[in-house]
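Exercise 7.
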Amino acid sequence: MPRSMAPDWLILPLEFIALVATIAGCGYHFGAEGSGLPPQAKTIYVERFANRSRYTAMEDQFDRDMKDEIARHKRLELVDDRSQADLVLSGELVYITKLAAATNSVGEPIEYTQTLSANAQLTDQHTKQVIWRSTGLYATDTYAMVSTAVVTTAPEFLQQNLRSQDIANLPDVQLAKTQSDFSRQQNLESLAQSVYVSMSEGF
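Solution. The predicted structure, written as tokens, is:
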């Protein structure tokens, strides 16, 4: 079945980056208070998110990141069998946009800001009711396209298996791919954190 896909990259004015920050929408809440997981819920099943982007296997990495994030908080126990779960988390990875964040003297992009967006919902497995839903959850990261734009002292760079001399020796095309891939990985981890916070707080 063909996927429904949005454009994977756009080069837009920097002002659009600020607009992205207004996207995160909130939906259903837990009860009248609108915050917190249902107190009786102890277990959760994470359904693999649908991948609506052009990047294959991204849903596999997000599945691991989402489960790691849930396990880290120790509030809910992950189960592999849906029938054993009190709650079911499901959703979709909607799109990735790439916006030019900085240019050189002739107007060529040397940095991009990459944004990953997702929609998610939480279902009470016992009542089959959606008890939380949020659209437009997102994570954003900026990465370099050329070696002169790489900040080798930045925490993001230090997490990579690269040295400053490696950066200088990489062709720009290879450097851009390396940094884009790492940025996407960072975004998936950040997005999993955003989903958990929104889900657990009910907004």
